[in-house]
């Protein structure tokens, strides 16, 4: 790991240990399976608006490139490929990249999976995603700067992360990790980032925030998009 790398070795090892059942909706990554449809709903809306796509179009990313940073075993990268994008996925854990490659092959999807951090990727992409990643990196501000370098002119950046609130700590760590819904040690509350701090980081590297939307949890709806950002939130941005 170089001094400029976003990778934290213990984080890579932690997520690597979850590789075997990553695609099991009842396994260690069960919460990601519940979260993924919410993220995809948001992504599709932002893609349609940012790139002025027909919302009924099956492959709105046809002819565009996408980079999924911290891609895990491909829960987001595969849908992006089905939306038409030429997808590159990068993750620090070699174990999950191996699973990602195998699963994509089974699905007949061509995705360029790589082991490493965003700093190891060259070129620029029309869409850059980093979902539930920034709270696990070595230096968040440097990580955001690295994401900006990978964003092509006219491109779209979408991120998600837990908010730093008592509510997110209760649901994400005390309850979810405490009850075994998420593997213990997955989250460090001190690494959670409030929306205003992330927006400031994005502005510092020359990106303009287009939208901020919360992800809330409710007894009837489960995880869903909301104006309530106390638990988790998504941010979309472009070059200012």
From TrEMBL:
GO terms for biological process: methylation. It catalyses: a 3-(all-trans-polyprenyl)benzene-1,2-diol + S-adenosyl-L-methionine = a 2-methoxy-6-(all-trans-polyprenyl)phenol + S-adenosyl-L-homocysteine + H(+); a 3-demethylubiquinol + S-adenosyl-L-methionine = a ubiquinol + S-adenosyl-L-homocysteine + H(+). Its EC number is 2.1.1.222, 2.1.1.64. Keywords: Methyltransferase, S-adenosyl-L-methionine, Transferase, Ubiquinone, Ubiquinone biosynthesis. It is an enzyme of class 2 (transferase). Belongs to the methyltransferase superfamily. UbiG/COQ3 family. PANTHER family: METHYLTRANSFERASE (PTHR43464), UBIQUINONE BIOSYNTHESIS O-METHYLTRANSFERASE, MITOCHONDRIAL (PTHR43464:SF19). This is Ubiquinone biosynthesis O-methyltransferase. It comes from Sphingomicrobium lutaoense. The lineage of its organism: Bacteria, Pseudomonadati, Pseudomonadota, Alphaproteobacteria, Sphingomonadales.
């Amino acid at each position: 790991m170089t001094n400029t790398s976003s990778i934290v070795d213990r984080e890579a090892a932690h997520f690597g240990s979850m590789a075997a059942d990553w695609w099991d909706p009842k396994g260690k990554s069960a919460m990601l399976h519940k979260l993924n449809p919410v993220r995809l709903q948001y992504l599709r809306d932002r893609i349609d608006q940012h790139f002025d796509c027909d919302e009924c179009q099956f492959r709105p990313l046809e002819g565009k490139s996408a980079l999924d940073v911290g891609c895990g075993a491909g829960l987001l990268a595969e849908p992006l490929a089905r939306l038409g994008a030429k997808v590159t996925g990068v993750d620090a854990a070699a174990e999950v990249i191996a699973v990602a490659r195998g699963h994509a092959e089974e699905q007949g999807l061509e995705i360029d999976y790589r082991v490493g951090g965003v700093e190891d990727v060259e070129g620029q992409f029309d869409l850059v995603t980093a979902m539930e990643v920034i709270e696990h990196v070595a230096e968040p501000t440097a990580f955001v700067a690295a994401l900006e370098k990978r964003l092509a002119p006219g491109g779209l950046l979408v991120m998600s992360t837990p908010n730093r609130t008592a509510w997110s700590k209760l649901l994400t760590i005390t309850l979810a990790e405490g009850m075994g819904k998420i593997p213990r040690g997955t989250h460090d509350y001190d690494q959670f980032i409030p929306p205003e701090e992330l927006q400031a980081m994005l502005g510092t590297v020359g990106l303009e925030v287009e939208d901020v939307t919360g992800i809330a949890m409710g007894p009837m709806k489960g995880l869903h998009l909301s104006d309530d950002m106390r638990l988790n939130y998504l941010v979309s941005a472009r070059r200012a």
